[in-house]
Amino acid sequence: MLVHSSSIGADKMVNIIVCDDNDSYRQEIIKVVEKVFKNNLYDFKIHSFDDYDQNFLKIVESNLENKVYLLDMETPSSDGIQVSRLIRKNDLNSFITYITLYYDDYKLLLDDDAMFFGYVDKRKDYKIELENILLKMIRLRFRKQMLRVKCSGIITDIDMRHIDYISCNRASHSIEIHTNWGTHTTNLTLIEVMELLDDRFIYIHRKYIVNREHISNIDITRKMVTLSNSIKLEASDSFLKSFKGNESNIEIGELIETSV
């Protein structure tokens, strides 16, 4: 088993389990996964296998959070159908996607018990198709609609899609929720409000939580994050460390599109 990991400031680690007995395909799949999750600022770890062997089964039986399976339909030990049924015995939450040359041979065997998220046909331009499936998976994962908080004694529902960032106001011992129509103030702490948010929100600094989908630019040299509304926020060294060694100014051009 080979493990690849990256940490870019997200709060939920995504574990991507890749199994393909063809080394060339497996490496291409890993490159697509790295591209998608890095561009969308997710913490992730890739667990890579060339067969459904004992090491693979240990991952299936483990308590790792947020599993995403990218499965070959045929390997020397087993096939993706049997493996997906094994996964579903105790795990109904992970995403399963098949990547195969043999979908036509197996499509009649795909049943509701497998609850697979999709399949990618290697005979076509499968890397683009895989990227789209991963982006769709990210959009669906951990998504909530509303943040409910008490503001000035009134219970307020705030659409998370429209939150740009959340900042800490130490002078008033409160936090400010900045949206595209105004600012809401609540007496919660950043830690408390983070527990109410979904997976699109990340810490970029101890003072700021940002909607990752609203980031347009990360400037490592100036330690600054620019949002799509041109607001600039200070970024911490821990958030920026994953970008060191790259160009000093990085455009985030492939973040998830948010439906309005």
Question: How would you explain this protein's 3D organization?
Answer:
By secondary structure, the chain is of the alpha+beta class. It folds into 2 domains: 2-140, Rossmann fold; 146-251, Beta Barrel (OB fold (Dihydrolipoamide Acetyltransferase, E2P)), CATH 2.40.50.1020. Helices cover 24% and strands 33% of the residues. It is built from 7 helices and 17 strands. The strands form 4 sheets. The protein has a 6-stranded mixed sheet with strand order 1-3-2-4-5-6, with helices on both faces. α1 (23-39) packs across α5 (126-140). The longest helix has 17 residues, at 23-39. The protein is elongated, with a radius of gyration of 20 Å. The termini are far apart. Mean pLDDT is 82; it is low at 245-260.
Instruction: Give the C-alpha Rg.
Output: 20 Å
> What is the string of SSEs from the N terminus onward?
EEHEHEHEHEHEEEEEHEEEEEHE
Would you tell me the structural class of the helices and strands?
alpha+beta
Poorly predicted residue ranges:
245-260
Discrete helix count: 7
What's the CATH topology name of the largest domain?
Rossmann fold
Mean pLDDT: 82
Globally, the shape reads elongated
Largest sheet: 6 strands, mixed
Beta-strand percentage?
A: 25-35%
The beta-strand count equals: 17
* Side-by-side strand order of the widest sheet: 1-3-2-4-5-6
CATH architecture of the largest domain: 3-Layer(aba) Sandwich
How far is it from the N-terminal to the C-terminal residue, by CA?
Answer: 41 Å
